[in-house]
Amino acid sequence: MANDPISQFQIQKIFPIEVGGMDFSFTNSSLFMVLTVAATSAFLIFSTSGRGLVPSRVQSVSEMMYEFIAGTLRDAAGTDGMRFFPLVFSLFMFVLVANLFGMFPYFFTITSHIIVTFALAMLVILTVIFYGFMRHGMSFLKLFIPSGVPAALIPLVTMIEVISFLSRPISLSVRLFANMLAGHITLKVFSGFVVSLGAMGAVGIFGAVLPLAMTVALTALEFLVAFLQAYVFAVLTCMYLNDAIHPSH
Amino acid sequence: MAGETQSTTEGIEVPPAEHGVGFPPFDATTFASQLLWLAITFGVFYWIMKNVAMPRIAGILEDRKDRIAGDLSEANRLKDETDAAIAAYEQALAEARNKAHSIAHDTRAKLKADHEARREKAEAELNEKLQAAETQIAGIKTEALSQIGEIAGDTTSALVEQLIGKAPTKTDLTKALKSALN
Questions:
Q1: Residue A196: pLDDT band by 50, 70, 90 thresholds?
Q2: How far is B2 from chain A (nearest CA, A)?
Q3: What is the pLDDT of residues A67-110, one digit of tens each?
Q4: B63 contacts in A (CB within 8 Å)?
Q5: Where in the sequence is the signal peptide annotated (chain A) (predicted)?
Q6: Which residues of B24-47 are buried (b: 16+ CB within 10 A; e: fewer)?
Q7: CA gap B95, B85 in Å, rounded
């Protein structure tokens, strides 16, 4: 059980709650959601409590995150897109910290569950759809009819555009989920090798050096992936929001 | 390796007994709870970000921008002041130079005029003296000439008396003298 690479994704109830036959228990996943929110909010608020004109080290981290996402959003969606800045910033920080929390041994990775990443992706897509129709009305549908396409090709191109639009929430959520899941499984498998080979005596200990080195390298890679996937999620969110703001491309 | 595979298989076999679905992320019975808690936590997180954390960071960045802009404008103001002071100094210098020029010019003109006046005065005096001298000379000359006539008359009368033994008449003498002198 301890060596099982899947058990780390197991949801365990901490406080069982059941409403109308539905299971709304406070689980280890819920616990880490709360921890992610609490830690991120606390960091952002306490690091900026000095309100230093010349930022302290932690304050400059918060400022860097803020300006990084602000720059990404402005580049992708223009100044009009800045109305979605709180959403994009929250998504980025939430996913980033959730991913990084997952890097602690024995911590639960909330983004390794498809339902969580899918819910976040749906939040983005529904925001795009609602805002797109609210702002542009029916002309939001121009999104699916690229300008400058020969009339004969319009049905085909529109179909492709619709399919690509519908696949967005799936690709957005599966990308994050699969990256986190696969990374954690790989880490667990290689570190499991270290333990099982180590238990085999002198030859085994010698042989365990290789998976150990692999585990160290993978840990570094996973930190990169944790950041990169949060960034990719934020960038794609910005690009989809750009469609809602400027539907004709 | 064999042990590993076995334990993995065992691990996968355990969950079905608990939840009915093998792979935890695809276990639909946990979805409701995860969605609810994600909605609650992310909702709270969004609210905190939007209303507390982000305005705070934005405020800090704004303050810094304002401070830098303020400092820059202050520097610009000081620079403008310095430029104005330099311009005023240059102007004062130019004015002083012009004044010096005009003073020098005036002095030169005044001296020239003064000099001219004195020269004219001296020339006038000299002319006057020359005039007086000329008058005097003319007087002396006239006098001398009149005396010459008399002397010549006397001499001529004496000469003629010596030559012919008889003194010429006054009228003849005067006539002869007049033609000789002229």
A1: confident
A2: 10
A3: 999 999 999 998 988 999 999 999 999 999 999 999 998 899 99
A4: 51, 53
A5: none
A6: bbebeebbbbbebbbeebbeebbe
A7: 15
* Higher pLDDT among residues B179 and B14, named by residue: B179
Render pLDDT for B22-72 as a digit per residue (tens, 0 to 9).
Answer: 788 888 888 889 999 999 999 999 999 999 999 999 999 999 999 999 999
Are A208 and A215 within 8 A, CB to CB?
no
Please check whether residue A242 touches B, CB under 8 A. no
A-to-B residue pairs, Cβ atoms closer than 8 angstroms: 157
Q: What digits encode the pLDDT tens for the residues B82-134?
A: 999 999 999 999 999 999 999 999 999 999 999 999 999 999 999 999 999 99
Measured N-to-C along each axis, helices B31-48 and A114-136 cross at an angle, to the nearest 10 degrees, of 60
- Cβ–Cβ gap A53/B67 under 8 Å: yes
Among candidates A148, A131, A69, A117, which has minimal Cα distance to B35? Answer: A117
| A232 Ramachandran zone, left/alpha/beta (phi>0; psi -120 to 50) | alpha
Q: Does A92 touch chain B (CB under 8 A)?
A: no
Q: What is the CA radius of gyration of chain A?
A: 22
| Chain A nearest CA to B46, separation (Å) | 6
| CB proximity under 8 Å: A 163-222 to B | 177, 181, 189, 192-193, 196
Contact B19, B29 (CB under 8 A): yes
What mean pLDDT do residues B158-169 have? 81
Domain parsing of chain A, residue ranges: 7-245
Integer angstrom CA distances of residue B74 from A142, B59, B63, B65 = 51, 22, 16, 14
